[in-house]
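Limitations

Structures in this collection are predictions, not experimental determinations, and the ligand pose is part of the prediction. Treat each record accordingly. The example that follows, with 1-O-phosphono-alpha-D-glucopyranose as the small molecule, is included so readers can see exactly what is and is not provided: the inputs are given verbatim, and the output is the predicted complex.
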Amino acid sequence: MQKQIKKVVIPVAGLGTRGLPFTKEIPKEMLPIVDVPTIQWIVEEVLSAGIEQIVFVTSRGKHALQDYFDHSPALEAFLRKRGKNELADKLQRIGSLCEVMSVRQKEPLGLGHAVLCAQPIVGDEPFAVCLGDEIFPPWDDTNRAQPPVKQLVQAFQKIGSSVVGVMEVPLAETKHYGILKIDSHPKESDAPFKVVGTVEKPQPEKAPSRFAIIGRYVFEPIIFEYLKSTPKGAGGEIQLTDGMTQLCGREGLHALQMQGCRYDVGNPFFYVKAQVDEALRRPELAQPLRDYLKTL
Ligand code: G1P
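Predicted complex:
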């Protein structure tokens, strides 16, 4: 029988230093693309893969994320009284989207440690992990057909081993990502391929490939055991990639190349690009924006 993925772990405990000063008081995952917070794009992606239980690994000051997916009866009633039923319906839908659970990461000890914090909630089941910086909005045609988490869940069910989403990046950018070690280059772009190790943020001259981990994973629960014994690695943090390397030598790890459109919203240029692309897809914004851009 195929193993179902019921939970996704979304680590949101980071200090968000790339987003300062905005992130001084507001979680970076609440940064909106037009009027939809980044976290909602991720939750919608996860829902499209049939996963409805969201586990946030949080820290101090992140309550806005949980509140956002809660019902707001007073606000909804106020809007309905004013005849703004469409808006009230929108809020009601957000409050019913998913089941949210949370666990605290009390110290910023790294991504591997953040994922390990979710073990008491996830237990002995396979689970997905999505990182909040990376979004694959469903406005792109490819993404609409196959959101990344959905592709990984399907691959996991087919091959039965943990699987990570990757994209090829220019050599100069390997230092920003976890990078795969592989034995041979995959022949087909849409088939899962075997990973022999992962290296966290290697300099270009040391990069074992150009396949970069882009923040989407499906893991067997054994990863928790490896993370428990993972020492501090790059940047003095417990790295998820180091736990993944232990998987490679035992239960196995596969990678799948993700197709479609990706935005790293922690990067100001890609954040602005995401805004423009989304605005151009909204009928009420597209023409005024085009007209304005022509005047520049
Ligand atoms: C994290 C991971 C890295 C991965 C990246 C994707 O790094 O440690 O392996 O490639 O996310 O965004 P961060 O960007 O949090 O430093």
